[in-house]
Amino acid sequence: PAERAALKDKIRRLLKEKNAVMVSHYYVHPDLQDLAEETGGIVSDSLKMARFGRDHAAQTLVVSGVRFMGETAKILSPEKTVLMPDLDATCSLDLGCPIDEFSAFCDQHPERTVVVYANTSAAVKARADWLVTSSCALDIVRALKDAGHKILWAPDRHLGAYIERETGADMVFWNGACIVHDEFKALELELLKKEHPQAKVLVHPESPPEVVALADAVGSTSAILQAAREMDAREFIVATDNGMMHKLRRLNPGKTFHEAPTAGNSATCKSCAHCPWMAMNGLADVARVLETGANAIHVDPALIPRARQPIDRMLAFTA
Ligand code: 13P
Ligand code: SF4
Q1: Ligand 2 centre from 52 Cα, in Å?
Q2: Which domain covers residue 244, as residue numbers?
Q3: Of 44, 119, 180, 194, which sits with the fewest C-beta atoms within 10 Å of its C-beta?
Q4: Mean pLDDT over each residue of the chain, to the nearest integer
Q5: Which residues cross the membrane (predicted)?
Q6: ipTM rounded to 2 decimals
């Protein structure tokens, strides 16, 4: 604890010295969430992280999350320095959607509007017409469908299938998945619901369809937070990365939150729903990158103008 407190003090001092601001995702360690908020930064979902980073006056952004979040910040503000605690913090959706294969898939469907999830590389974004995050995907696809578009969707097949069910849009899918949400299990969830009959079930739409079908509310990390605040219930079961529990409990004292079961829940692993890449973000690395300027995100300047188009469209749509 003494070491953590010293690191936090050091980070507070360095943020001021370097005119830097922290942007953290809900899935990173509670220390990094609290520190971001306390120092004038933000803890949020991927959409709000992008907008905050673009609009903040600080010339240095420290993005605690995974690589695509740092890259999006850099694409939106190439003149800023974007630092990340660990540059190897990636995402199974990004890894599972290499640009060459994705581009060939797009070439097979030239008549379709290409909609990609934020959890992708800059090169994949540069091949897309629209970018979406889980908090705006439904509204954007619905608007595109109403305007007569057929959709090519990548990379998360569960989120894509959820949107197809909700909107009735004509969609073809890339076959990607989030290794965290893909692990939630419907049968075990039904059993847990029986143990807690009053509990409402909150599910992130990257989860499998059988799990989504058991939800009382489906949505992005922000939508889950909102549902927990607004729903008339004292008890919840939550199917998303357990990093979310920190904010859920902080904002809802007196309410009880249970983690939804994954295949790995057992006597030895009670909380398996945690992204290994989000877990790579730590206090010591934040202090180190602020001090040394190491781990600056670089995006190929040739990609930036084209990659920015779908991001700008999303930000304008959701403004
Ligand atoms: P949100 O876009 O809901 O923040 O979550 C996406 C995600 O899984 C980030 O890794
Ligand atoms: Fe990617 Fe899933 Fe981790 Fe989010 S939680 S960064 S979608 S692997």
Answers
A1: 20
A2: 181-259
A3: 194
A4: 95
A5: none
A6: 0.96
